[in-house]
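Sequence, please.
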């Protein structure tokens, strides 16, 4: 006699994965809570600094391009010698792609990045008189420059209140419920809308540093988080 097939569980008994359940449980932040969070960030670090080494707007642009899918620490090991040799678009273009590769070969995707660095240098010379443009559209038209890179340069070089969403800010926006979004642009626009204007100049630095040193990807340090009581993440390891 043939055996009966194993009885399958009813779909009603299937539980949501932990991550999905957590997403459903997250509540939106109130405006007073957002104000308080950034008040605390400002009180702890009134003038946060980016961690990419640079000497001017051009070298900042190059450093950010090189930092894509790489760590700031790794980029900072390679760029001092590069910038000593070429700290202007003219010098970088003259250096040439092969020599730039030699300087940045310890950085991931260095071949393509070296190509972009030389190409953007040539574009700056031919289209912008060797100066880094102060508009997002012009920056994004340069080889190797996307929206995040443009926002970093606008903020750090020109003092524009932009929000550069990297992996850290994308994680924080979604994990905490501060600015949930399916892609970096969604998170960026929600943060720009939610964060009070008086905090916007330094907001992206506060969030990046928070993600880099406290709200870690694998094991966030909730016990030392200064906004743990405000955070909406249902899996945080300290009570609200």
């Amino acid at each position: 006699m043939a055996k009966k097939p194993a009885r399958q569980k009813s779909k009603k008994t299937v539980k949501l994965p932990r991550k999905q359940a957590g997403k459903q449980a997250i509540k939106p932040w109130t405006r007073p809570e957002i104000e308080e969070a950034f008040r605390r960030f400002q009180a702890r670090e009134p003038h946060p600094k980016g961690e990419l080494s640079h000497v001017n707007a051009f070298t900042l642009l190059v450093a950010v391009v090189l930092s894509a899918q790489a760590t700031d620490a790794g980029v900072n090991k390679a760029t001092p010698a590069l910038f000593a040799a070429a700290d202007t678009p003219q010098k970088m273009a003259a250096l040439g792609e092969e020599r730039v590769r030699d300087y940045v070969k310890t950085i991931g995707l260095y071949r393509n990045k070296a190509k972009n660095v030389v190409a953007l240098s040539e574009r700056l010379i031919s289209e912008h008189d060797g100066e880094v443009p102060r508009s997002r559209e012009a920056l994004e038209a340069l080889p190797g420059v996307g929206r995040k890179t443009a926002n970093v340069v606008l903020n750090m070089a020109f003092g524009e209140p932009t929000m550069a969403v990297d992996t850290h800010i994308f994680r924080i926006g979604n994990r905490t419920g501060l600015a949930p979004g399916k892609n970096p642009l969604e998170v960026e626009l929600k943060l720009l809308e939610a964060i009070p204007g008086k905090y916007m100049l330094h907001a992206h630095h506060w969030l990046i540093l928070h993600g880099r040193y406290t709200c870690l990807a694998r094991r966030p340090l909730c016990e030392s988080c200064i906004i743990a009581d405000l955070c909406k993440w249902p899996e945080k390891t300290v009570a609200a």
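Residues 1-23 have pLDDT under 50 and may be disordered.
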